[in-house]
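### Sample
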Amino acid sequence: MGTLNPKKSKLKPWLKKQWCIGKVDGEYLAKMENVLAVYAQPTPPGRARLCFDERPCQLLDEMIAALPIQPGKAAKEDNEYARKGTCVVLLAYDLDTGQRYTQVRKQRTKADYAEFMHELVSTYYTDVEYIDLVQDNLNTHKYGSFYEHLPLAQARLLSHKLVFHYTPKHGSWLNAAEIEFSALARQCLDRRIGSLEELERQVSLWVSERNQLAVKVHWSFTAVTAETKLKRWYEQVNPACNPS
């Protein structure tokens, strides 16, 4: 069998990309540029930049124990499995240090969001005055979640320290945490995991290894790039608007 030539193999039906932009209006462009400004700005002393996102996970257990892995051969598993419910992985990624912080929770409520942010900030960011936080506009991602589920002093502290930067609707591609979740899906969640405890263990191992290497996301898409590549969007929003 000959060696595959990537230049000749232009058709790749096994690869599929989903990129839903949705309606692009002035609000979309404004939020996009706000997030891109966070990525582009140098971080002054006393400030941090984080990206946050959540990913639902389905717990699947083996009906029959998988066969032991043999050298040189792929792991084999039965095609039948048992559903063990769902859970959520919460992830915050630090753009400047290349560290990521995760929790596995049974659900993603306002309380889960508030508790995660409190533990994150009180553990790792006590000496930081402000944190620019990029996240989507989910109804739980509000300052009100802190006041509804945390002691007043904690709610006030988080509301003062966290500066929210919302991605536009259908703008998850602007959240660097999505890149981390893509790596997590490929390197950790590509197997059947049957319990919350085992998922916590697997995710913790992945985080430890990646943090030890301080793997960073190199974000190259800027507002200047947007003016060129997304010129059509700007003109659709305002025909008189000519990015320059």
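The first helix runs from residue 26 to 40. This sample (IS630 family transposase) is used throughout the tutorial notebook.
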